[in-house]
Protein: 3-phenylpropionate/trans-cinnamate dioxygenase ferredoxin reductase subunit
Organism: Couchioplanes caeruleus
Amino acid sequence: MNTSQQTFVIAGAGLAGAKAAETLRERGFDGRVLLIGDEPTRPYERPPLSKGHLTGEFDPASVFVHDETFYAEHSIELLTATTVTGLDLAAHTVTLSNDTTLRFDKALLATGAQPRPLTVPGANLPGVHYLRTLADADALATAAASASSVAVVGAGWIGAEVAASLRTRGLPVALIEPATVPLERVLGREVGEIYRKLHAHHGVDLHLGEGVAALHGDRRVEELCTTTGTRIGADLVVVGVGAIPRTQVAAEAGLKVDDGVVTDEYLRTSHPDVYAAGDIANAWHPVFGARMRVEHWANASNQGAVAAANMLGAEQPYTHTPYFFSDQYDFGMEYTGYCPQWDQVVFRGNPDAGEFLAFWLHDGVIAAAMNANIWDVNEHLQQLVASRAHIPVERLTDPDVSVESLLPVMR
């Protein structure tokens, strides 16, 4: 098929969009590629924003997905500080924030998510920060340089990593979370307890089982009041209470939306010429037999590439096992799998020593696995999880049974 006269529009110039544009050129697409992003800079990766960017151990150039010359060299039209404000499915057009209308043959929605706002009195006071963009990270790092005390609201991944990074800088940090342990919703109480001990060991003032009632201050935030009445002094508050997929344009266009833009296993939306990838995509996963929306780096990178291939007719199902990593203090981990519910968590190694493997089991199946300060095993863990295998608990927990040796049991 002659594609030189075709136009592919990618709405969203984050990691997913950048990898999609790269893949289109790698696979020989010679038509017009427009990569449209609302931020003023070229695509970058977000994981360093809550880690090295805040601790100061950060090379600013390393955050970008591609070199500055990449887009021009590959004839990718990168439109920064521009948003897609409208999508006309019948006409195959997008409208941009500068009132330009562009026709497309295929489109990819990769507009990501935005921070869920804190809705309590005082939430809009100066000194209250969110962390999503590079500009957010710059502003937070600048504020941290002159802060005397920090309150972090939410002990999910963003909150826990920000708390660790700012505590590493020597700042007094309070962490407020309604759950009983950090990361309880994702990891459960057993592994969440490990993170509770980790933050406590590093001197974080933990307020677990407490929400935020209000923020107080005269001209800027000075104090946080919890739902139990505890008052915490803080001239810097960081909010990490989740993210909301940016689906407004898709919904207004008539695409199917349900906690993200709904796609099939090929990342195709309810319109055959429109695809979705990254944080915005609620995609059917054929291996796990479930629909899932994953807000992690690997998912954005992998889905962007697969969506681009399918825009070119590859009909390649998205089967990657969900994966993410986190570094907090000297505790690094990788997690693989999809586990909205589980019956049992079992460990190999000693969690108190900070080096272990954990397995989440549901109906006897390994639904997820995690390696903590143990490296070069995650590829095998991904294979175990993807196999949907029943492995006896005594083999999972036996340190004398290598993870690799478990793989033939499944075949």
Summary: The chain has eleven helices and 26 strands. The chain has a mean pLDDT of 94. The two ends are 40 Å apart (CA to CA).
